[in-house]
Amino acid sequence: LTDGxxxxxxxxxxxxxxxxxxxxxxxxxxxRGSFSSLTVACSPDxxxxxxxxxALVGDSVLVTPSPHPGARYLRLQxxxxxxxxxxxxxxxxxxxx
Length: 97
Known about the structure:
This protein has strands spanning 9-11, 15-24, 29-43, 50-63, 71-77, 89-96. It is mainly β. The termini are close together.
């Protein structure tokens, strides 16, 4: 699923939740943007979250979840800066297989 645009979207509160539309098995998650300390979590219901990866850094990040029963929601959460302030989430692409 894509909108075709690759512009960077900034989430001021440091997080974004992607609804996959139905519970799906996650095999690969590809993220592009600018990440300083990104945590990726998933949930079948948007309430109980399971962490897939943490402390991810870079412009392009690949996450290969261990076998997981399935998830409908994917949450991206950027970490805090050196002063303890929430960093803005800067993401341009989220791809899930």
